[in-house]
Structures are given as C-alpha cells and as structure tokens.
Design brief:
CATH architecture: 3-Layer(aba) Sandwich
CATH class: Alpha Beta
Shape: globular
Number of domains: 1
Helix content: 25-40%
Strand order of the largest sheet: 1-4-6
Strand content: 15-25%
CATH superfamily: Adenylosuccinate Synthetase, subunit A, domain 1
Radius of gyration: 16 Å
CATH topology: Adenylosuccinate Synthetase, Chain A, domain 1
Length: 133
C-alpha cells in the first residue's frame, strides 16, 4: 500500500485546509473527504479563476485525480448536484472522477426545516444555525 496523508482540522474551520489539500493534490491519486457537510467550504484560486467548493474535494480541479465523498460526510443531494453543475459551467468535468460513498449521510429538506424550527423555539442559547446539516 502506498503512502497516506491525512489533514485534520483542529479548530472550528477557516484554517486553510482546502488550500493545503490543493497543494498536496499534486502528488496523490485520490482525494477523500471523510466528514463534514456543505455548511462549510473553501475557495481555491488557480490562475485567474476562483472556485468555491462545499462538498466536493478541491482535488477535482486537477485533471486525472479521483475525488471521494466518504461515508462520514453529510450530503444534501441538491447541494452536490448544484456544485457539480457549477463545476461543469466552469469547464471542470467530474465524470468518472467523483465517487460518493453509499454510506454517506443523506439529508433532505425536512432536516433543514427541523433545524430551523428547533432554533426558533430556543429562548436562550441560540446557535445561529446555517440551516444546513
């Protein structure tokens, strides 16, 4: 088995993990996202093009790389389809290069509604939900 590199965030986000992954992508075949959801994201700038990603690993921006959305990721089907369409509109093909685990957690619109209603019900200690799982 080849070398495996794992990047783990130790804060609440905004650590630059997406940028680090983008740099590490050059020397790997697979880029796997193993947790989280589309409530976060990262921006990668290549040349004069800016790409904003939320679910799909930034390795998708590099030809010939295989990207995996793993079984620990929370997937909103609409969000992933929108992201795929946005990438296509920017000339990035995901065909045959994006894999989604059949064990990934799927959320539906009612999950977001439950989140919104729970937040509205709180008197104190509101968390400022993004309404995204």
């Amino acid at each position: 088995m080849g070398q495996v590199t794992v990047l783990v965030g130790a804060q609440w986000g905004d650590e630059g993990k997406g940028k680090v992954i983008d740099v590490l992508t050059e020397g790997v075949q697979y880029i796997v996202r193993y947790q989280g959801g589309n409530n976060a994201g990262h921006t990668v700038v290549i040349g004069d093009k800016k790409y904003v990603l939320h679910l799909i690993p930034s390795g998708i921006l590099h030809e010939g790389k295989i990207c995996v959305i793993g079984h620990g990721v929370v997937v909103d089907p609409k969000a992933v389809i929108d992201e795929i369409e946005l990438l296509k509109s920017q000339g990035i093909s995901v065909e045959g290069r994006l894999k989604i685990s059949d064990k990934a957690h799927i959320i539906f619109p009612y999950h977001n509604k439950i989140d919104e209603l729970r937040e509205a019900k709180r008197k104190k200690g509101k968390i400022g939900t993004t309404k995204k799982e």
